[in-house]
Write a structure and sequence with these properties.
The complex is a heterotrimer of chains A (248), B (321) and C (290). Chain A is α/β, with parallel strands linked by helices and 248 residues long. Chain A is built from ten helices and ten strands. In chain A, the strands form two sheets. Chain A has a six-stranded mixed β-sheet, sandwiched between helices. In chain A, strands 2-1-4-5 form a four-stranded antiparallel β-sheet, covered by helices on one side. In chain A, strand 1 and strand 2 form a beta hairpin. Chain C is built from eleven helices and four strands, in the order ααααβββααααβααα. Classes of the chains: A alpha/beta (248), B mainly alpha (321), C mainly alpha (290). Chains A and B meet through helix 2, helix 3 and helix 5 of A and helix 8 and helix 9 of B. The structure holds adenosine-5'-triphosphate and magnesium ion (MG).
């Protein structure tokens, strides 16, 4: 469904991604994990068309989309959420979601109906008319998911939709993600919450400092020596990075 | 768009249309016509700035293009005034598309977009002031020939109704935008351009459509001005005054709403008249007051007069932009 | 074609004009570089400064050059207060709001001046206003030469202050990394206001240097403001040497195109450059990459 071929991305002197290839099978939930700054968000941005890779290609359903702009990719069926949530702050929840729904439903009534349905689906049914700016962080994460879902994608890129949620909220969200897949949407997700990755993903790719260091079934990957080192060696160090850097 | 969406417009326009039946003094009618002309220019600005969040500081570029196009077509080419009006709107829309294409393609937004539109308006002003076809610094007179076929009316009341009809058309257009996919996407771009792209919004195309419509409506205002005063020069057509008025009215009235520009234009000019009443003939008092209102509106009433009115209904809504 | 001496004189005159443009643009650059805002009131503030110079001369008989030590701190204080108590609080930190608030201020200042001084154009009569200096075949105006020297001096001074003083370091820290600067205990609001004050102080000096050879009316700032924006954009938005180079370049372009195409079209050249630079390379010709 989605093939990334030898993707590299440099920001000035910094190599954020170095020769990364991955292959996402239709109907799967695939995980992309790695310590902070590994390049996960950058890879998502490249797949969704927000960044051009320095080298490499992105193929979606056997079609080269490397140079397509983001909105074209959305039309083709790639939707992404943003790790740093990007709500349309001045609009209500249902209006936010409707912007996504308009992609496949040009008429207002249809788009609003569709948006309402999606909102219920992700658990925002009670907050339809609330301004997006008034949502809690958990609500905003749901909104990200709902908007992306409203575009009726074939491939959904979820960038840490569980981060910042408490355990009970995560327990609520995980089944939602699984049910989306069950309806035929392929999912590629990044996540720091390992438990969720283990229970949701069939296969996992591990990035560290821009390189792919492991891939395979979640269980096997977690026992990989390189992976453990990447996490424990740098995971602790990452916490003490200066504040500005952690925002990137 | 349903009948319910249009009802407030129909009522407001119908009531306003009654005014000349009760008020017949020329001063008042003059005042109202000027308010309508400014409101129309502001309605144009509102499409791009209010809904799309792209603040133009140079809508004079479109106002002036409309005014000059209709004046030049009539005086130099003998085109009928109504046809000249239509062509003037088209010329303004085209100018909008070109300026939009150049600036949005190079990714200009925020302050940069404001600056570049201002610069375009200034370029047009200097050119119009120097070129021969525009009559240079002396400006252009449209030949007086008071016949409806010439878009000239002996009665000010009739001109008022024509202007009102145009404002009403712009109201309907704006309401239509509000209720459409195009409008939703435009607002999405205002709120967060990147997120809009992720949801499949072609931001360049949407912004181009918005600036084209916006410029067309403001150009209609320019044409109206030319027909009313039968005179155009570079300072009137491309001067900063109209750029400022077109932006001020929606922001004071309520940007990104259908009625905001109209309410803003009316309140501002009513206030300006009152100020003149008190301050006598001191020049600049009204504009200085407008400036204070602009600062106050940004500080305390980011949604303008309409937003203030709505605040009686408790609803949390953050500042746009 | 013109004789080489005439062209050379136009070129040098362009440099002289450019140096005063540099002072005006410097304030704008500084404010942009640190606060990341475009100050639309810059032109109106310049007009205010020019009227202040005129009033000091007409009312107190103060020579424009001697007004520098009086008006510079005054305008610093004015700028400080404007940013601290009006622009900062009113705009709630949003870029488009800042744009609107400074536009509002521009409208207020321009029209308050119009209400006070009316639309008459005024000039200063000094006994050195028309003195000139001859260099071989070239004749250059003496007050404008003084203006050039002073403008270059102030630019260098400002640059030194930014590079070496503690205030300068705080300003640069805020410009680079607002959050980090706040974390290490820098009062960001204060630094913003100081920067804005410095920008206005530059305007006061520019006004003092301009007045012996220029005129003032309530709209005079408009002529300068787009020029100043052009310079700032040419100079890469936030670079002091970039602004100086950009200003000299614009001065020369204006002077030479004025010579060849007449004055009003000379301005046209500037705006076209401005638009082109914005469209093609918003990081500027002389500036480092943003
Ligand atoms: N626009 C940019 N310009 C320069 N450097 C960038 C940019 N975007 C990301 N980077 C850098 O690229 C590297 C990878 O960042 P990225 O956000 O992709 O990591 P991540 O794996 O998503 O991390 P996290 O788990 O913290 O979200 C980081 O070092 C980051 O600082
Ligand atoms: Mg990330």
């Amino acid at each position: 469904m989605l093939v990334a071929e030898s993707i590299s991305k440099r920001f000035g002197g910094l190599t954020a991604l170095n020769d990364v290839s991955l292959n996402v099978k239709p109907g799967s939930i695939t995980g992309l994990i790695g310590p902070n700054g590994a390049g996960k968000t950058t890879l998502f941005a490249i797949i969704a068309g927000f960044l051009r890779p320095t080298a490499g290609r992105v193929l979606f359903e056997d079609r080269d989309v490397t140079t397509e702009p983001p909105h074209r990719r959305a039309q083709l069926g790639i939707a992404r959420t943003f790790q740093i949530v990007q709500p349309f702050a001045g609009l209500t929840v249902v209006e936010n979601i409707a912007v996504g729904a308009y992609l496949r439903h040009p008429r207002r009534a249809d788009a609003l109906a569709r948006a309402t349905k999606v909102a219920r689906r992700v658990g925002l049914g009670a907050e339809l008319e609330k301004p997006a700016a008034s949502l809690t962080i958990a609500g905003r994460k749901r909104l990200e998911l709902a908007r992306a879902l409203a575009t009726e994608p074939k491939l959904l890129l979820l960038d840490e939709v569980l981060a910042g949620l408490n355990p009970s909220e995560i327990r609520d969200m995980a089944p939602v993600v699984r049910s989306i897949r069950d309806e035929g949407v392929t999912i590629l997700m990044t996540e720091h919450v390992m438990q969720a990755v283990m229970s949701l993903c069939e296969s996992v790719y591990v990035l560290s400092e821009g390189r792919l260091i492991a891939q395979g079934a979640p269980q096997a990957v977690c026992e990989d020596r390189q992976v453990v080192e990447a996490y424990l060696g740098r995971g602790a160090a990452a916490r003490f990075r200066p504040a500005g850097a952690a925002l990137a | 768009m349903t009948a319910r969406d249009l009802l407030p417009i129909a009522v407001a326009v119908a009531l306003t249309a009654l005014v000349p039946l009760f008020v017949t003094t020329n001063t008042v009618l003059n005042f109202l016509v000027l308010v309508l002309i400014v409101a129309l220019a502001a309605q144009g600005w509102n499409i791009l700035g209010g809904f799309g969040g792209q603040f133009s500081f140079g809508h004079a570029a479109f106002f002036g293009t409309g005014a000059y196009a209709t004046a030049i077509l009539q005086t130099r080419f003998g085109v009928n005034a109504w046809a000249g009006f239509a062509l003037g709107v088209a010329a303004g829309a085209l100018a909008g598309w070109i300026i939009g294409y150049l600036s949005f393609r190079s990714g200009l937004r925020g302050s940069y977009f404001a600056l570049v539109t201002l610069a375009f308006a200034e370029v047009f002003r200097i050119l119009a002031n120097a070129a021969e076809v525009t009559g240079g610094a002396a400006g252009m007179l449209i030949k007086l020939d008071m016949r409806p076929a010439n878009f000239q009316f002996a009665s000010r009341a009739v001109f008022f109704w024509v202007a009102l009809a145009l404002v009403a058309a712009a109201l309907v257009l704006t309401r239509g935008i509000e209720c459409s996919r195009f409008g939703a996407r435009l607002v999405a771009i205002r709120e967060n351009e990147e997120a809009a792209q992720a949801l499949g919004v072609d931001t360049l195309r949407t912004k181009l459509a918005a600036i084209t419509l916006s410029a067309g409506v403001t150009a209609a205002s320019g044409c109206l001005y030319a027909q009313y005063f039968l005179f155009v020069d570079a300072q009137i057509a491309y001067g900063t005054w109209i750029s400022v008025e077109a932006l001020l009215a929606p922001i004071i009235g309520g940007a990104g709403t259908a009625f905001g520009p109209l309410i803003g234009a009316l309140s501002l000019h009513a206030l300006g008249e009152i100020a003149k009443l008190f301050a006598g003939r001191v020049p600049g008092i009204d504009l200085a007051l407008f400036g204070c209102l602009l600062v106050a509106a940004v500080a305390f009433a980011p949604e303008g007069i309409l937003g203030l009115a709505r605040r009686t209904r408790p609803r949390l809504k953050p500042a746009a932009g | 074609m013109y004789a080489p001496a005439i062209v050379a004189e136009a070129f040098l005159n362009g440099l002289l004009t450019g140096s005063v443009y540099a002072l005006i643009a410097l304030g704008l650059t500084l404010v942009y570089g640190v606060l990341h805002i475009i100050n639309f009131a810059h032109g109106a503030l310049l007009t205010g400064a020019m009227f202040a110079v005129w009033a000091a001369h007409a009312g107190l008989g103060l020579d424009p050059y001697l007004a520098i030590p009086l008006l510079t701190p005054l305008f610093f204080a004015l700028g400080y207060a404007l940013q601290r108590f009006v622009i900062g609080p009113a705009s709630h930190g949003s870029e488009s709001n800042i744009l609107l608030v400074t536009l509002g201020l521009a409208i207020i200042i321009e029209n308050a001046l119009l209400a006070t001084f009316r639309s008459d154009t005024r000039t200063l009569a000094t006994d050195y206003g028309f003195q000139s200096v001859e260099f071989g075949p070239l004749i250059l105006s003496k007050p404008r030469l003084i203006g050039f020297a002073a403008a270059v001096l102030v630019t260098i001074l400002l640059w030194l202050v930014l590079a070496h003083s503690d205030t300068g370091k705080a300003i640069r820290a805020v410009a680079k990394e607002k959050l980090g600067a706040r974390l290490v205990g820098i009062d960001v609001g204060h630094v913003y206001a100081v920067t804005f004050g410095l920008g206005c102080a530059c305007l006061a000096i520019a006004a003092c240097l301009l007045m012996p050879t220029f005129y003032v009316n309530p709209r005079v700032g408009n002529a300068f403001v787009l020029v100043a924006f052009t310079i700032v954009v040419l100079g890469g938005m936030s670079s002091v040497p970039g602004a100086l180079l950009g200003a000299l370049f614009v001065g020369v372009v204006e002077s030479l195109s004025g010579l060849y195409f007449g004055d009003s079209l000379g301005q046209l050249g500037i705006f076209l450059i401005f638009i082109l630079v914005l469209l093609v390379r918003p990081t500027g010709l002389f500036g480092a990459k943003a």
